Amino acid sequence: MSLLTEAQTKTTAIIIVSVVIIAIIAGVAVYYASQKPAQTVTVTQTQTVTKTASPTTTTTSPTKTVTPPKIKEIKIGLIEPLTGAHAVFGQEAKEAAELIINVINNELGGIKNLGGAKLKLVVADAGETPEQAKLAAEKLVAQEHPPIIIGAYISRMTAAVAEVTEREKIILVMDGLVDSLTEQGWKYVFRVAPKASAHGKSAVDFVLDMAKKKNLTIKKAAVIHEDSIFGTYVAQGAEKELAKYGIDYIVEAYPYDISDVTPIVSKLMDYNPDIVISVPYFHDAVLLAKTIKEMGFHPMFIAGAGGCGYTDPDSIKAAGEAVEWYTNTYSYNPARPTEWNKKIVKMFEDKYGKLPTEAAGIIFYSLMTVKEALEKAAVLHPEDPLNPDNLRDAFLSLDLTDNNSIAAQLYPTGHIKFAPNGDNIYAGTAVIQVINGKPHVVWPDPEPGIQPVFPRPDWPGAKG
Amino acid sequence: MQVISVDPSLLVQNLVNGVFTGLLYSLVALGLALIFGVMDIINFAHGDFVMVGAYLTYVIATTFMIEPSLTAFITMPIFFLLGIVIYKLIIEEVLGAEPLIQIAVTVGLLMVLRNLALMIFHAEPRGVPFTIFTQPIVIGPITIASSRLAAGIVSLVALWLIHVLLTKTKWGIAVRATADDREVAELMGINVKRVYAVTFGLGTALTALAAALIMTFSRADPYLGLLYGLLSWVIVAMGGLGGVIGVLFSGLIIGVIEALGITFVGAGARELFIYLTFFFVLWFRPRGLFGRR
Fold first, then answer.
1. Which helix (H) or strand (E) holds A120?
2. Rounded Cα–Cα distance for residues B214 and A454 (Å)
3. Is the CATH code 3.30.499.10 the one for domain A73-194+336-416?
4. CB contact at 8 A, A370 and A150
5. If phi over 0 gives left and psi between -120 and 50 gives alpha, with beta otherwise, what is residue B193?
6. Pick from B162, B204, B157: which is nearest to B24 by CA?
7. CA of A66, closest CA in chain B: separation in Å?
8. Nearest CA in chain B to A291
C-alpha cells in the first residue's frame, strides 16, 4: 500500500517538475518573443533621432551646406522562394543578387553619392505560399528593417509581401509579373520587368512581324495557357493583340500539373490553326512539346509566351529535339551586346557555370536600378535619402538609358522610366528561339550571326 | 472565344486517347490495389513511388543512353527489392494497426521521398530527351501517339499477367487466401509475412514499370506523386477491390472521361470530371464497380 503511494508521489513529483520546466521554457520564449518588437521600436527611434539631428546641425551652422547623415551600409532585402516548388527561380535570383551586390560594392565603389556606402543583402525565404511569403516579409522587416526589398518572383507571393511593405512604407521592387500588382493603388511598389500581358503581346507581335517579313498570312491562331493568374494574364495580352489584328482564335486553359495533354493536342489538330501561342509552366512545356512532336502536329509556328519552359536550358535538356524552333518571350536578354551586359553575363557564367535565365536577369537590372535610385535620392534629398517618400521620388525621377546607366544596359529595351503606378513605361521583352538545341535571342534584334527560323521547317507550307 | 462543334472524328480520336491513357492509369493504380487488397494497408506513398521511379528511369536512361521504356528491366527488380526493404523496415510494424497509424507512417514516407527528390533534383522537371517513340500512327482521321499506344499495350499485358498470377498460380491462391482471412491462411500453413513482403515488393515494382512508360512522353518532377497518388486512390476505390478487372475498368473510365472532358468542356476542369465521376460511381455503388465484400 505504502509502496504504491510512494510510486504515486514519485509520478506526481515528476509531473510537477516537468510542468515547472515547461512553464519556465514557455516563459522565456514568451519574454524573448515580446522583446523582439521592442527592439524594432528602438531601431525606429534611433532613426527618428537621426532625422531630427540633421535639421539641428543645419540650424547651428546655417552657412554650411546640408551634411548628409553618415550612411555606411544600406540593407537591401531579398525575399525569394528558396525552397519548395519554385526554388529554381528563387535560388537563381539569390545568386544573381549576390553577384550584383558584389559588383556594386567592390567594382563600383558602393553608392558614390552616399560617400561610397555599401549595400548589404539580407535574404528571406518566401517558401511556397503567400502566407509563408508574408511571414518572411514580416520577419525580415522586424529584424533588419531594410529601406528597399526586392521580391518575390511568384506574383501571389509578391502581393503578400507588398501588403507588408506598403504598411511599413518600404520600397518594393517587384520581380513578379502579374499585371494586377501595379493596379492596386500601392504607393511604394516599382517594377522594372515587363508585366505578364506584355509578354503575350510581344509573342504575337514577334510572330506577326516575322510573317510579314516572309509574306505569310495568319488567319487562325490558338492560345493555350496554364490556368494560373500569371498564365491567364499572359494569354490575355496575346488575345488582345490577336483581336486587334482581326485574327480568329481559340483559347484553351489547362492546369500546369496536367498528366497528359494528348486531348489538347488533338483539339488543336482538329482546329488546325496557323499559329499556336503557348503559355506554359515548366512541367507542361516538356509534356506539350513532346506530345506535339509525337502526334505529328505541324502548324506554321509555335511561339511560347511568358518566359517559362521551352527555351530554358533545363527544358531543352528534358525535352530534347521536341523543343527545336520553339520560342519564348524573355524579360531579359542575355545576348544584348552592351558592355555591361556582356560583362555581367560572363561573371555569372564564370561564377555559377550556367547562363543566367530570366530569374537572374530581372534581378540584374532591378538591383542596378535600385543603385541608380539610391544615387539619385542622395542628390535630390541629401537630408534624408532613405526616407520612403524620398526614395519613391528618386525612383520616379529616373530616366535610364544605355548611355547613362548600367541598369538600362542590362534591360531588353535599354530604357527604364517609371510611370506613377510603378511600371516601367519602356517595358519590353526579347524573344528567344531554340536553334540546333541552343537558345538564341532572335528578336527584336537578333544575336550576331543568328537568324530566326520562321516558319517552322516541318510546316507543310514551308518552302524548300 | 469560339465553341467547337462536336465532330465525330474528334470524338473517336479522344475515345482512343482516353483508352490508352486509361490503361496506363490502371497500371499506375494496380500496385496500390494489390497492396491494399491483400494487406489492408493504406499506402499514401504510392504516387511517390511512381515519382521516384520516374527519376530512376531518368537517371538510368540518360547515364547509359538507354531507351526510357527499356529501363523498366533494370528499375523493376530494384523496386521489387526496395519494396521488400520498405516493407520489412516500416510496414511490418504497422500491420493490423489502426488506419490512422498506417496513414501517418505512409504519409511520413511520402514526405521523405518527396523532399529527398526536391533536395537531389530541385524543382526543375527532368526528362529523357530521346525515345524510340517519335512517329505517330495515323489511321484515317485518327492519330495515335506511339508512346501512348506502347504504354497502353504494356499496361494491358501487365494487368493480364497479374490477373493470371492471382487466379491461376499456387502463389496467387495463397495471396487471395491471405487477403480473405489472414488467420485461417496462417493455420493452413501459408507464410503470411512472406506473402505480404512479396506483394509489397510486386506492388512497388509495378510503379517502376508505370514510371518507365510515363517517361517516354512526360517528365519527372518532385510533385508527380501528388498527381498519380490521388488518381490511384480514385481508381482503386472506384474499382471496389474487384481485383484486376475492377482496376482496369475504372482506369479506362477515368481516362475516357478525362479526355472527353478536356476536349469538349475544357482542360481547366480536368480534376472536376475525375472527381464527379468518382462521386457518382460511389453514390450508386458505394462498394465500387466490382466490390465483392
1. strand A118-125
2. 32
3. no
4. yes
5. alpha
6. B157
7. 52
8. B217
Closest partner CB to A85 (pick from B134, B138, B223)? B223
Report residue B26 CA to chain centroid gap: 6
Q: How far is CA A306 from CA A17, A21, A127, B197, in A?
A: 60, 55, 22, 49
**Partner residue opposite B143 with nearest CB, options A83, A263, A296:** A296
pLDDT digits (tens, 9 = 90+) for A16-66: 666 666 666 666 665 555 544 433 333 333 343 344 444 444 444 444 455
**Which CATH topology does A197-330+429-443 take?**
Rossmann fold (3.40.50)
Residue B240's contacts (CB-CB under 8 Å, 6 or more residues apart) are B246, B285, B287, B288, B289, B290, B291, B292
A408: distance to nearest CA of chain B, Å? 30
Name the stretches of chain A with pLDDT < 50. Answer: 1-4, 35-64
Distance separating alpha carbons of residues A200 and A207, to the nearest angstrom: 11
Q: State the smallest CA–CA distance between residue B240 and chain A in angstroms.
A: 24
Spatial separation of the C-alpha atoms in residues B197 and A310, rounded to whole Å:
43
**What is the distance between the alpha carbons of residues A177 and A152, in angstroms, rounded to a whole number?**
10
Contacts of A296 in chain B (CB under 8 A): 135-136, 138, 143
Cβ of A290 within 8 Å of Cβ of B17? The answer is no
Q: Which of A80, A272, A290, A308 to mutate to test the interface with B (most CBs of B within 10 A)?
A: A290
**Sequence spans of domains, chain A:** 73-194+336-416, 197-330+429-443
Can you give the pLDDT of all 293 residues of chain B as single tens digits? 445 556 788 899 989 999 999 999 999 999 999 998 888 888 899 999 999 999 999 999 999 999 999 999 999 999 999 999 999 999 998 888 888 998 999 999 999 999 999 888 877 788 888 888 888 888 888 889 899 999 999 999 999 999 999 999 999 999 989 888 888 988 888 899 999 999 999 999 999 999 999 999 998 988 889 889 989 999 998 887 768 999 999 999 999 999 998 888 888 778 888 888 888 888 888 888 877 65
Structure confidence at residue A137 (pLDDT): 96
Read off the amino acid at residue A14.
I
Q: Which residues of A82-95 are buried (b: 16+ CB within 10 A; e: fewer)?
A: bbbbbbbbbbbbbb
- AA identity, residue A238: A
User: Is cis: bond before A152, omega within 30 of 0?
Assistant: yes
Q: pTM for this structure?
A: 0.75
Which among B18, B147, B268 has the least Cβ separation from residue A294?
B147
Considering only CA atoms, give the Rg of chain B. Answer: 19
